[in-house]
Amino acid sequence: MSARDPHHEALRTDLGAYVLGALPADEAAALEAHLATCAGCRAERDDLLPAVAVLGELKRASASARVDEPAPAGLDALVLGRLAREGARERRTAWARRAGLAAVAGAAAAAVLVAGLAVTRDGAPATPQAAPAPPMEQVDVAAYDDGVTADAALVNHTWGVEVKLTATGFTDGRRFSVDVVGTDGKRYPAGAFVGTGSREMHCNLSSAVLRPDATGFEVRDGRGDVVVSSTFA
User: Could you report the per-residue pLDDT of 185-203, keeping only the tens digit for each?
Assistant: First the structure.
């Protein structure tokens, strides 16, 4: 499909909302069908994934500190600049703005902390308290390719789930994508990695879907075949 095709461009514009789980079900289904055939859009989807981790970082901070003043002016620029440093190319930050500013606004207190501007009403600096470690659970993993072995743990964050994958046997240099499967049957992108062959690898993969709404995860190769999967208890 041509990169100048208006339909193609409209689907690309939806990628920001898609990685944040904010796209309506029918639009998400249409985009997923497109992603299955468009390598360019799959690459752009993967470049947007750091936005999920950054927003989650802000939400975790907001849960651990008391902030009584409103967020500073320029919050949008602060967050978008952080996204750029995390690897999202500048021309895509506008998509993250449209799809994610509602979530960022909900984490405004945390953004104040990130900027080093947190204050209390009496003018004294706010003292953030260390947040407790999020709960982690071991999950069963099934591997469908000979030579692949994998173990995984699931971290239940306030902003979504994180899959900690330890594995060997993924074809060296080959790209694999990871999706968290929701209770609605949809697959939510959680990142990608490159195989390391017989060398053990450790991947931290994040998705915006919350733990009660997650039923498992899948690792797929470049052809879309499931190589590893897990079903959560």
Answer: 999 999 999 999 999 999 9
pLDDT in tens, 98-138: 444 444 434 444 444 444 444 444 455 555 566 677 778 99
Domain with CATH 2.60.40.770 in the chain: 136-231
N-to-C CA span, the chain? 40
For residue 176, report the phi and psi dihedrals to the nearest 5 degrees.
-130, 145
Among the CATH numbers 2.60.40.770, 2.60.40.10, 3.30.360.10, 2.30.30.100, which is that of 136-231? 2.60.40.770
pLDDT of 217 reads 97
**One-character DSSP codes across 25-94:** HHHHHHHHHHHTT-HHHHHHHHHHTHHHHHHHHHHHHHHT----SPPPTTHHHHHHHHHHHTT--GGGHH
Residue 62: count of CB within 10 angstroms of its CB = 20
Integer Cα distance of 62 and 83 in angstroms: 18
Q: pTM of the entire structure?
A: 0.50
Where do we find the tokens 């897990």?
Answer: 230
Q: Is the Cβ–Cβ distance between 208 and 159 less than 8 Å?
A: yes
Query: How far is 220 from 66, CA to CA, in rounded Å?
Result: 42
User: Quick one: pLDDT band at residue 84, thresholds 50, 70, 90?
Assistant: very low
What is residue 8's three-state secondary structure? helix
Identify the residue whose tokens are 């990685």.
19
With residues binned 3-state (H G I as helix, E B as strand, rest as coil), the percentages for the chain, rounded to 5, are 35, 25, 35
